[in-house]
Amino acid sequence: MAENGRNVGSNLSVEGGIPSGLNRIKTHLGSSKNDRLNHILERSPTASASGFFRPPPMVEHKTEREGQGIN
Length: 71
Hints:
It is elongated and about 55 Å long. It has four helices and no strands. It has one domain. It is mostly helical. Helices cover 82% and strands 0% of the residues. Residues 1-29, 44-71 are annotated as: Disordered.
């Protein structure tokens, strides 16, 4: 048990670094965007795949507002 506790503590200290923190933020942003895209897919099954690679700015703003409304 003590060894496990030490391992967890060392992992937390390493993850607390600035690079890991930035990666964690990027992950959160990406996951939230994916959730919004999933909501759009559920609403409109005919959404084109090209929208995921090149989303227009207007669609991005609408998506953010819709995401906040759902939450």
